[in-house]
Every structure is written in C-alpha cells, then in structure tokens.
Amino acid sequence: MHEGKMIFSQVMALLPWRRFQTCVDRYRGDDKVISLHTHELFKIMLFAQLAGRESLSSTVLCLNVFSSYCYHIGIRSKSTKSNLAHANNKRNWKIFYDFAQILIKETTKLYRNDSIKLDINEGVYALDSTTIDLCLTLFPWAHFRKTKSAIKMHTKINLRGKIPARNGVAKNNADPYFYGENTRCQCNGSYRLGTGMLVCHGSWLPRL
After folding, report:
1. 72 contact partners, CB below 8 Å, separation of at least 6
2. Cβ(152)–Cβ(196) under 8 Å?
3. What spatial distance separates the first Cα and last Cα of the chain, rounded to whole Å?
C-alpha cells in the first residue's frame, strides 16, 4: 500500500502556483467555472504528457484507473472526455503560454553555468523542426497529404539545459519566414542546424 507523498505531487509542489494563478486571473480563466478549474486542467495535461498518453480517452482511462489517488495529486474534479474537451476548447491558450515563459525564464537561470563540452562562453542553440500529424476531417486547413493534415513545429533550443527558447507553429509546407525575421538571434551566439533544415530552410540564413 502506498505511503507518503506521491512523486507527481512532489513535482507539482515545485511549480510557482501563485504565479500560475496570476496568469489565470489575467485572462479570467476560471470565470463561471464550476468544476475542472484551470489549475486542475493543467495538472491533467501535464500528467498525460508524463504518462505518455496520446488522446483524451487514454488520459481519462488512465486517471480513472487511479481515481482513488487523484484527490491526493490535486485533481479533485471528475475527469471525463467531454469535460476535458470543453475545457481545452474554452480556456485561453495565453494562460499556459505566459506560464511557460515564466518557467523557461526560471529554468534558464538554473542551467546558466552548465558545461556543454564546447569552449564557448556565449549562448549555444539548436534549431530544429518536427511534423505533427493531424486529422484531416478536423483540420482541413492544414492539408498535408491526400488522407491527412499536419503542422510543423519549429523549435529553438538552448543547449545549456536543453530548454526551448522559442517555438513556432506553421503549416507543414515549411515556413522559412519564421527562421528569418521572426527568430531572435543572440549576438555572438552559436547555432547548430540539422542537414534537413539547411536544405529546406536555407534561404533565411543570410538574414540571421
């Protein structure tokens, strides 16, 4: 039988919840909400990420299996697929974006002096992109192939701690503009690019 504080609860205790609530209040995320408050939605989505769940159904199934522990990890509202779908649709995405920026800023401080096995004092970054498959019926605007849709997520990663410094989402037919004018490059910083990116997005390099 389990005794003591659960690992997930210990991880959650490390987060600055007062600042998270500030983000929620800024965009009135909990206005007229009776159940499944924003902090609970965030915990459920984080749980799904850590548990490797790939859908709302899988997430709910996993939570229901451990329903007796949900209260102890801070999830006190009943989790159903319809509740999660409604909450994800109604909550302002800027709440989570602002909170992510807070976490990135704090974690960057922790890894500022980390060694990266390179004789470089300035910032070192990696630029990469990945394709995220989507359902063609639900996302016809992101048409990729005959039977499916997709978007491409571009990421700028700080190699000191492997922290994402900037993310961007575009249609899958590539978006070099994101890398050019929209990428904030650090003066004297070093950047590492994959071969595929040089082939697909090489046109923006002179503008860095």
Report:
1. 6, 9
2. no
3. 57
CA distance 10 to 15: 10
Task: State pLDDT tens for residues 185-197.
Answer: 666 667 776 655 5
CB 201 within 8 A of CB 179: yes
The amino acid present at 160, given as its one-letter code, is R
163-171 and 143-145: which strand pairing? unpaired
Please give the radius of gyration of the chain, using alpha carbons only, rounded to the nearest integer.
20
Q: What pLDDT digit, counting tens, does each position of 91-127 carry? A: 999 999 999 999 988 888 887 777 776 666 667 788 7
Residue with tokens 């390179």: 118
pLDDT at 202: 46
Helix (H, G, I), strand (E, B) or coil at 39: helix
- Report d(CA 176, CA 12) in Å as an integer: 37
Q: What angle separates helix 81-90 from helix 56-65, to the nearest 10 degrees? A: 130
The label of the residue with tokens 């904030």 reads 184
User: In a 10 Å sphere around its CB, with 0-12 CB exposed, 13-18 middle and 19+ buried, how is residue 7 labelled?
Assistant: exposed
Q: Give the chain's mean pLDDT.
A: 80
Give the amino acid at 163: I
* More confident position, 56 or 190: 56
Provide the pLDDT for residue 200. 47
Beta strands in the chain (DSSP E): 124-134, 143-145, 148-158, 163-171, 190-193
